[in-house]
C-alpha cells in the first residue's frame, strides 16, 4: 500500500472543494457556501466565454465580416436576438414577443411531428406484440401488454375506479410501483457513482494510491 | 431503550459515515467481484465489433462535470474499442458546452495511445449553437451544418469528413448524455432518418430509456457506472468503471441493510402503538 502525493496545486484545490461540498452532509457551513458559489460562478463564466467565442464571434461576427455577400442573412437572427433583449427596456418590451413567437412557432413545428412519431406512435407499435409460443416470449409480451393496458386504465379518470375497472387500475398501480422502484434503485446507484467518482479522484489523482 | 427504538433515533450522519466506509474500504481491500454483462451493453459491443475500418462512429458527448464520473468511463471504453478496431471517430458536443472540456483531453490521450492521426482517424467538432437543429441538419448536409471542426479547420479540407454527406455515412451515434439529449437523438435522428443510436446515460435516466430500447429506437444502453464497467470488461480494459463497481456493490449492500432495518423498525413501532 503506497501513496504518491500529487505535486499539482490544482489537484489539491479540487480536493479542497470536494471536501467542502461533502461537509454539507454534516451540517450547512461557510465552506460549503463558498464552494457552492465558486462552482456556480466558474460554471457560468466558462459557459459565457464559450458562448461568446463559439456562437457570437465564431458563427456570427467572423463569417459576417469575412464574407458579407454570402452571409448577410445572418443579420436577421441577430436582429431577432436583439429583439429578445428588449425585454430589459419597458418601452420596447413588445418587440421581444415577435422574436419569442418565431422561436416557439419554429421550435414546435420542428419538434411536434417528430415527438409524436418517436414518443407516441413508435412506442405504440412496440406494444402491439404477437403471441409467441415460447414460454419466455409469451411471458415477456404478456407482461408488456398487461402493463400498458392496466397503466392506461389507471390514468383514465372519466370512469370511477370501481368493480372490474378498479381491479385493472389496481394492477396498473403495481406496474407503476415497480417502475418507480426501478427508477429509485437506479437513482441511488447514480448518486453513489458520483460519490465513488470523487473518492477515486482523491485516491488516484491526489494521493496516488490507485494506479489506473 | 430497545434496539428498534434506538434505530428510530439514529443520527443520519452515522448512516453517511457507514456508507462512506463501505465505498472507501473496497479500494484498500478488493475482493475482485465478477461483473455480469447485460444484453443491452453487449449489443453495443457486438454492433461495433461488426463495423469495419471504413465505418464512422459519432460520439455525442453531452454531459457536464457533475456526471463525469459515470459517463467518461463509457467514453473511454467505447472510444478505445473503436480505435482498437481502426474505426473512424467523430466527437461532437451538440447539447453541452461544458462537455467539450471533458471529452477533448480524453480523446487526445487515447488517440496518442493508439497512434491515431487527427483528421484521418478522428475529428473533434466541439459545440455549436443549434441543439436539435444540428441533428436535423446532419441528416441533410453534414459538412454544411458543422462547417468547421473545433480548431476552425473547414470540414471539406479534412480527409475524414470531406466525403461525409449525411447519416448514411455514419454507422452509429453514441449519445453520451447527462440529460434528455439522448432522447433528442431518438426524436430527430432515429425517427426522421432511422439513424442507429446507442445511449450511454446516467443511472438516474436509465429506467426511462428502456422503453426506447424495447421499441428498437436504441440498439443498446449503458446505464451509469455499471454500464461503463460492463463495457470495460467486454473490451478487456478495466478502468474507473470496473474499479468503482466493487465500492458500488458494497454500498448497495449497506443501503439494502438499512432499508430492511428501517422497515423492521417501522413495523415494530406500529405494533407497539397498536
List the helices and strands and how they pair.
The complex is a heterodimer of chains A (212) and B (274).
Chain A: H1 9-22, H2 30-66, H3 68-71, H4 75-85, H5 93-127, H6 135-154, H7 163-206
Chain B: H1 3-8, H2 12-28, H3 39-49, E1 56-62, H4 68-84, E2 88-92, H5 99-113, E3 122-126, H6 132-140, H7 142-146, E4 172-177, H8 181-193, E5 197-201, H9 203-214, E6 220-223, H10 224-234, H11 240-273
Parallel strand pairs in B: 1-2, 1-4, 2-3, 4-5, 5-6
Helix pairs in contact in B: 2-11, 4-5, 4-10, 6-8, 10-11
Describe the structure in your own words:
The complex is a heterodimer of chains A (212) and B (274). Chain A is built from seven helices and no strands. Chain A is mostly helical and 212 residues long. Chain A has a domain at 129-212. The two termini of chain A are 15 Å apart. Chain B folds into two domains: 3-30 and 249-273; 39-238, 3-Layer(aba) Sandwich (Rossmann fold), CATH 3.40.50.10160. Chain B is built from eleven helices and six strands. In chain B, helix 5 links the parallel strand 2 (88-92) and strand 3 (122-126). Chain B is elongated. Chain B starts with a helix and ends with a helix. The interface between A and B is large, with 45 and 55 residues.
Give a concise summary.
The complex is a heterodimer of chains A (212) and B (274). With 212 residues, chain A is mainly α. Chain A contains 7 helices and no strands.
